[in-house]
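Example 9 (inverse folding). The structure is encoded as follows.
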């Protein structure tokens, strides 16, 4: 799956990594529901760090369509909330 981190570029992630990412996504949803800004920020950074760690960066000039778009590391709670689906940020 091709994943874009807003403001950073794209990475390719194997489907096998999504169970691990969904755990962080669930934690992020809980922190957003509780209005826990500091924990939200830490978990958002952990999620994006894990995507960078597990993903293979695509070249900057690549024009692949992104199947998943994640917020920038400095996104606010409100901006991330606007990006949510029923599954959170990450499907599954």
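The amino acid assigned to each position is listed next.
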């Amino acid at each position: 799956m091709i994943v874009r981190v807003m403001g950073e570029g794209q990475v390719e992630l194997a489907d096998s990594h999504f169970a691990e990412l969904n755990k962080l996504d669930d934690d992020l949803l809980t922190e957003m529901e509780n209005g826990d800004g500091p924990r939200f920020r830490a978990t958002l950074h952990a999620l994006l760090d894990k995507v960078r760690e597990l993903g293979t960066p695509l070249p900057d000039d690549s024009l692949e369509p992104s199947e998943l778009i994640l917020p920038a590391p400095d996104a606010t709670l409100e901006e991330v909330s606007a990006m949510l689906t029923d599954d959170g940020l990450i499907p599954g």
